[in-house]
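REQUEST FORM: STRUCTURE PREDICTION
Request ID: SP-0412
Submitted by: Lab K.M.
Chain count: 1
Length (residues): 89
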Amino acid sequence: MAKVFFTANLRRHVDCTSMEAEGFTVADVLRQVFAVQDRLGHYVLDDQGGLRKHMTILVDGQRIGDLDKLTDPVAPASEVWVMQALSGG
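STATUS: Completed
RESULT:
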C-alpha cells in the first residue's frame, strides 16, 4: 500500500494523520484517505474534485502533473505527500 503523509503546516489547519491506502492513481489513494478523514478532502480538493490552488501533492518526490483529475500513477510502495503550496520571498 502507498503511504500518505501530510505536512505539519497542513496538520495545523486540519486534523489529519498519515495512513496507508491502495490505488493505482492519486485519485484512488486520496479517495480512500478522504473516506476516513472527510474534512481533509474538502480542504485539499475543490468542488470539481481537482486540487485546490493552495495545495500540492508529491508522489515519490515528484510533483503531480494532473491537477484536475489526479490521474498520476501510484505504485504500491509509493510515498504520497500532501501539502500546502506556500509561496513568498
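NOTES: The mean pLDDT is 92.
Reviewed by: T.R.
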